[in-house]
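Changelog entry

Holo records now carry the ligand SMILES as an explicit input line rather than a separate metadata file. Below, a converted record for fe (ii) ion, shown in the new format.
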Amino acid sequence: MLEFLPVRNVEASEAHLQRRRVKESVDRLNIGFRVERHPELWSALAETGEHFDDAVCMAREIDAVWDKLELKGISREKMMLCALLHDVGKAGPEKRSTELHRAIKQLFAPPRKPFNPFRQQNGRTVPKTIRDFMEETEMRGAFEVEAVLEKELKIKSDAKPIIDFWRDHADWTYDLLSHHREGEVDDDVVTIASTHHVLEGRNPAHVPLDDIHPGSKVLELMDKYQTLAMIDKYQAFRGRGGLDHEKAIEALRRIIEANKTLDTVAKQEYGRIIDVLASSEEELTETLVRPEITEPTVLQRAPRRSMAA
Ligand SMILES: [Fe+2]
Ligand SMILES: [Fe+2]
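Structure line, unchanged by the conversion:
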């Protein structure tokens, strides 16, 4: 019980509260996922803080538009689980000291003022480094953050672009999930969840993206990771970016149009998913309410069929 925790150990008591909150949120989703059976993932989800809240919103967004998505070969519950776990890598690499966890938490926290990870230099777009980010956002304890990144991850803060560092979380999601693949967290969940930044060139599960002949595993999974990628961006634009529904949809369309690696078939599939989101403003807006400030009764519903169904 909380009252028996040592008062001075604030971090431990926060971690305890956060784990409890994660369990409550997961249980409320009612997808048959027993997070307590996956202790490492439970701790990592708790460590991701507000990113976990975004993941819960995404799971609810999938739930809200499920019938329109018409995804074949996957259950609603499993797809919601992929959303729930997609950013678990924001806790950091699997093996992380408390110091590294603190540093990563700071680097993944939304900056206090708007920050553009790129700058214009001699007519070229240049990525800003981790050090640029820390200086520009006046991050506290930047010296310690740099030291721990170098010691444990061999990362030089004045050389590594902050955008690359942020995107590393897709690889960390893959490592964490693949090492704790068990029960509901099966191969498909690992692949779909960790492929959500495929548009940014991150493919830690090594999905052979060109192997899309009929019947291939990639083709089978494609609309799932594409759905997750679009919902992830929609949630970021609306939840964190403060865009309204229409602007968020426009931004999604622009991202797909501008992507030079996608062929016509892929662009059409992304377009279909965006159309589903575009036509679901009311349902999606309801899900944006953060779980902790939502009346519990609103979220309660009849038990679902099991994940295996
Ligand atoms: Fe992500
Ligand atoms: Fe995300």
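Spot-checked after migration. Confidence is low (pLDDT under 50) at residues 292-309. The pocket of fe (ii) ion (ligand 2) is lined by residues 54, 86-87, 232 (CB under 6 Å).
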